[in-house]
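How a chain folds remains the central question behind the approach discussed here. In the encoding step, the backbone of a single protein was reduced to a row of integers, each denoting a local shape. We regard such an encoding as a compact summary of how the chain folds. The sequence in question and its structure tokens are set out directly beneath this paragraph:

___
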Amino acid sequence: MNAVTPPGGEQSLGPTARRMILGSQLRRMREDAGITRQEAGYSIRGSESKISRLELGRVGFKERDVADLLTMYGMTDPAERQQFLDMVKESNEPGWWRRYGDLMPSWFNDLVGLEEAAARIQVWEPLYVTGLLQTEDYARAIMSHGRKDMVNEQVDRRVALRMRRQKMLSRPDAPRLWLVLDESVLYRPIGDREVLKGQIDHLLEMIQQPNISVQVLPFDRSGYSADSAFSLLRFAEEELPNIAYTEYLTGAHYIDKREEIERYSRALDMLAVDAETPDRSRQMLMKRCAEI
């Protein structure tokens, strides 16, 4: 039985991805040993639900708990145990977004970490330009609910966080970002005319990068495949499942069940077929920008 080592270079993985990989490895080891979640939870003075959260990478690991589980699962080789426990320490290291912790709800932390680790991010947006491609002015208008009198230091820090998230798109190993955007977004008056024009200009600039694609879904084809925004994150590491992410007013859902992921994937396929091609979408963006 070998301890897990992240493929593709350890430095490319953030703490969120490391936790998920370690959790997946612990689950396989438990299943191979024929041990139930309830039995594993009891051995670390916890519950079945705690083991479930650990195996999904939803919470941080305590070295003592992991050491006890490794013993229970039959991993006794000192070198293998140390390799695993070293990765536990690395998985608990804070990500760059830690300094924005006072602004981020707990359910949002995982998304930032998953974006950093993803190989491909597919997004459907019927209301706004996705946060990963927003300009500062556009993001500020959204976060202040379109009211300039509500712009304050907290809003500016939220905008700074969003801009920092975007830096991953310029990395040498940047994920592939594919956005399907409803045509209504190009007409929705976020901010003033200059803000909207600047945002569309920015989209035209960003799609020149080889890892970014935008397709526009015309008015007459909207609302058939999916009626709310979602993202699908895919990973190069075999240990990481594809994850669909959807938000609601007070939280978010992270979906990794295979049958549900397939439904989201099919919806994206249908959206891509209904939307204009990337080249035709670029022409639509240029035309709309000239109209504003």
Confidence is low (pLDDT under 50) at residues 5-11. The chain has eleven helices and six strands. Residues 15-32 form the longest helix (18 residues). The two ends are 62 Å apart (CA to CA).
